[in-house]
Amino acid sequence: MCGIVGAIACRQVQGILLEGLKRLEYRGYDSAGMATLDDQSALARRRAVGKVAALEAELARAPLSGRCGIAHTRWATHGRPTVENAHPHFSNGRLAVVHNGIIENFEPLRVELEADGYRFSSETDTEVIAHLIDREFSRLGDLFAAVERVIARLDGAYAIAVMHRDQGERIIGARKGSPLVVGVGIDEIFLASDPLALLQVTDRFIYLHEGDVVQLCRGGALEIHDRTGQPVERAVVTYEHGDGAASKGRFRHFMQKEIFEQSEVIAATLEGRLASDHALSRAFGATAEELFERIEAIHIVACGTSYHAGMVARYWLEKLAGIPTQVEVASEYRYREVVVPRNTLFVTLSQSGETADTLAALRHAQGRGDYLGSLAICNVAGSSLVRESQLSLLTLAGPEIGVASTKAFTTQLTALMLLALSLRRVRQGDDPVAAGLIEALRGLPRVIARTLKLDATIERLASAFGEKQHALFLGRGTQFPIALEGALKLKEISYIHAEAYPAGELKHGPLALVDGDMPVVAVAPNDELLEKLKSNLQEVRTRGGQLFVFADEASGIRESEGVTVIALPAVDELLAPIVYTLPLQLLAYHVAVLRGTDVDQPRNLAKSVTVE
Ligand code: G6P
User: Fold this and answer.
1) Sign of CA dihedral 263, 264, 265, 270
2) Ligand 1 centroid to 578 CA: how many Å?
3) Where in the chain is the domain with CATH 3.60.20.10?
4) Active-site residues (predicted)?
5) Residue 491 carries which DSSP code?
6) 350 in contact with ligand 1, CB cutoff 6 A
């Protein structure tokens, strides 16, 4: 994932920008670059393929002078990771641009600019932005106005930072679909795609809104225009998250903290990957679009919680994209004579990207030579799985410390929904169903935040499980894998034996176990299977089982003797698996706390299983 840092400071900016890039390294990237304007208004840049350390070595050899500059880490989408494709991109040696995101209409724009005499020196979509702004600047003589004019012509998602030799020490930033923050210093001003990049110089930030364009000038002056071009004031907020991932902050356990981060990290996983009414296929890699057109089948392979994400994705991929999908645990996949239909994409899902079984399955699949290609959906940039797969999409859950996976799972689901929507679009173009889902996805972080407010209710519920030996989880359709995940969470951290069944299977065996000592948890969003699920629940009730039903506010399931109903916010049926995971995570967490187990490091389990 790309990163942006910019600075207009009272001191030389090379060190500030370099430190900013290092702080963004966790997001994953394959090249890096920096440009500065020196005191004589000369524009210069350095770029390097690979780690920020390679850029640092280049800068040690040939330092950049100047108190105004922009820098970037690039994750290749248009064109390979080469020095020529690395940012900043220049236009006519006088304008520099760094860009996060994807410009979908770059091809016609490139043709137009070439006809106008612009020569391209990279394969990127970004260079189009550089030349467009350069041309507009020549007409208007004002960089702020030129950027505003140009962004109106860009389709897709972006955050950009721009400097021009003839505009003195000035940086223009703009965002749509990708984050950008202004860091406010003392007589100094900064810009970055993530506040983390700037914590070494300030803790005061202005979070730019969607469509905002900002002009930063020497002395810390700034001006912001909203999406309609009107000047606006945006609040300066003090950053209070402390040093993030490594500390538990106000939480008692990492797992609890990670459960509560889900609204934020789902928003991060969506950032820069959604256009107004569709998901951006390019987010999966430079060759994704071309490959997606040929997919006729999908095999998903993963372990543990990641495997459950794959099970949900099967419903989505078949329903939304009409692609036959198989899901298998990695340790089984390798030892089976798998039949690979023509044009099958091999997908791995993993938080760590280092799970031995998943990695071995990928190598096995690649060794066969008959898959169309491979895609890794993973939370760790630069992990083996990402490096060895043809395509990849990073979930931006941030480091997950608790052994029991939580935020990695819901961000995997978010990424898999983007995959299903991208593949649907390849097959049938834009349509209202997809547009509705995109809208619902945008609202998802808010629904997640509302759902987390159930924490106290669920904590009270936990006492009903504290003394039990067993629990049963039921779901139907996409909620069956969520029931599996709920049962897995409970057994991992509270050591209560828990099993999950598709609700329709209850009568074929597990019903024999149901009595007053067996709590039964059902996940029942208001989808087409609800009526059927209601009768399954009756089967439990008549055997004296204690029922705990997580249901949509509008489901019509009522509380009664032995039936506790926990109402969840209304959510699009297809996104319900993401939302319904949360109360089950909270339930497992509170039961484990009640039982006094080691929540973050449960016995016998490891976070990353790198042995077979
Ligand atoms: C271990 C962890 C699980 C995780 C599984 C797969 O068993 O304890 O929480 O789901 O590995 O890990 P991965 O990193 O590949 O998602």
Assistant:
1) positive
2) 18
3) 3-238
4) 2 (nucleophile), 607 (for fru-6p isomerization activity)
5) H
6) yes
Ligand 1 centroid to residue 303 C-alpha, Å: 6
pTM of the model: 0.80
Whether 304 lines ligand 1, by a CB cut-off of 6 Å, is yes
Contact assessment for residue 377 and residue 348, using Cβ atoms and an 8 Å cutoff: yes
pLDDT band at 529 (very low <50, low <70, confident <90, very high): low
**CATH for 455-595?**
3.40.50.10490
Tens of pLDDT, residue by residue over 41-76, are 999 999 999 989 999 999 999 999 999 999 999 988
Question: For residue 438, is it left (φ>0), alpha (ψ between -120 and 50) or beta?
Answer: alpha
For the chain, where do the domains classified as CATH 3.40.50.10490 start and end? 254-451, 455-595
Closest residue by CA, ligand 1 atom 2: 607
- Cβ 252 vs Cβ 401: under 8 Å: no
Of 303, 348, 362, 395, best ligand 1 pocket probe by most atoms within 8 Å of the beta carbon: 303
pLDDT digits (tens, 9 = 90+) for 562-578: 889 999 999 999 999 99
* Index of the ligand 1 atom closest to the CA of residue 303: 6
| Residue located nearest, by CA, to atom 5 of ligand 1 | 304
**Ligand 1 contact, 306 CB (< 6 A):** yes
CATH number of the domain located at residue range(s) 254-451 in this protein:
3.40.50.10490
> Alpha helix (H) ranges present in 348-462?
356-368, 384-388, 407-428, 432-452, 455-461
**305 alpha carbon to ligand 1 midpoint, in Å?**
6
Query: Which of 397, 398, 385, 393 minimizes the C-alpha distance to 420?
Result: 393
Q: Evaluate whether 509 touches 552 at the Cβ level (below 8 Å).
A: no
- Please give the Cα distance from 217 to 187 (Å, whole number): 10
**What does DSSP say about strands 325-329 and 297-302: parallel, antiparallel, or unpaired?**
parallel
389 lines ligand 1 (CB under 6 A): no
pLDDT band at 324 (very low <50, low <70, confident <90, very high): very high
How do 31-37 and 563-568 pair as beta strands?
Answer: unpaired
Closest by CA to 273, choosing from 351, 173, 194, 159, is 159
Task: Indicate the CATH number of 3-238 among 3.40.1380.20, 3.60.20.10, 1.10.10.10, 2.40.50.140.
Answer: 3.60.20.10
Tokens of 560: 């009664």
Q: What is the pLDDT of residue 285?
A: 87
**What's the CA gap between 440 and 279, in Å, rounded?**
12
Longest dimension (CA), the chain: 84
Catalytic residue positions? 2, 607
